[in-house]
Amino acid sequence: MPGFKDMSGMTFGRLTVLHRAPTRKNSTDARFTCMCSCGKLHEASGTVLRRGGVQSCGCLQREKPRTHGLTDHPLYHCWYNMLDRCNDTTNRQYADYGGRGIAVCDEWQGSTGLAQFISDMGECPPEHSIDRIDNSGPYSKDNCRWASRSEQQRNRRDSLIISHNGRSGTVSDWARWVGISTGTILYRLKVGRPLDVVLSPERFTTYGNKRTGL
Fold first, then answer.
1. Could you tell me what percent of the chain has a pLDDT over 70?
2. For the CA atoms of 139, 143, 149, 150, what is the dihedral angle to 10 degrees?
3. What DSSP string describes 42-103?
4. Of 166, 12, 182, 24, the residue nearest 103 (C-alpha)
5. What angle is formed at CA 139 by the lines to CA 79 and CA 3, rounded to 5 degrees?
6. Given 2, 40, 148, 180, which residue has the most CB atoms within 10 angstroms?
7. What is the pLDDT of residues 158-183, one digit of tens each?
8. Distance of CA 41 to the CA centre of its chain
9. Contact assessment for residue 30 and residue 20, using Cβ atoms and an 8 Å cutoff
10. For residue 136, with 0-12 CB atoms within 10 Å meaning exposed, 13-18 middle and 19 or more buried, which class applies?
11. DSSP state of 210
12. For residue 55, what are the CA distances in angstroms to 49, 151, 170, 209?
């Protein structure tokens, strides 16, 4: 790969890079097999290692709860799970977070990380959870907010945005505005109907005639 940098022998926190690992499908980021000081092997991308997004095989995060004295705080599990999916390759969500370069800022890591996270984010409103404003950006004070489920759905990196007659919104938005189901909109898009038909409250037959069917 052009521009590949051999990081063998370099140390990042508790991790020492052993050798290059196979690149994951649909990714151009070089990956490396590392040895953690605890004796376990850990695989991480070069980008995440250089950013300081991962410092151990996960053992460092498992040890931290005993140092900050805040394990009973309502935001503890939110904070811990955020670190885990970004840093621990065994986490089932790692591929969508740490695996694609999403890191947690330095201020929210370490023995003082939870306290700083609580100070920066404040109390989580009911029915809300943490959301990154820029889905390609890190977990940090400037890029995170508390968001409702619907707000997070709008912000998902795979959300389909439809723009028509000067108005833009997700499929769910248009379904609510027009008064039809999301399934109807998705079906009409799938069969190639024009947007004025896709977003029409009228019902159509399979052949495009009004009044019945989709």
1. 85
2. -150
3. EEEEHHHHHHT---SSSHHHHHTHHHHS-TTSTTHHHHHHHHHHHH-TTSTTGGGTGGGT--
4. 12
5. 130
6. 180
7. 567 788 888 887 787 788 888 888 77
8. 24
9. yes
10. exposed
11. B
12. 8, 32, 38, 61
List alpha helices for the chain, DSSP H: 46-51, 59-63, 65-68, 76-87, 113-121, 149-155, 171-178, 182-190, 195-198
pLDDT tens digits, residue range 11-32?
A: 988 899 999 988 777 667 788 9
- Is the pTM above the cut of 0.85? no
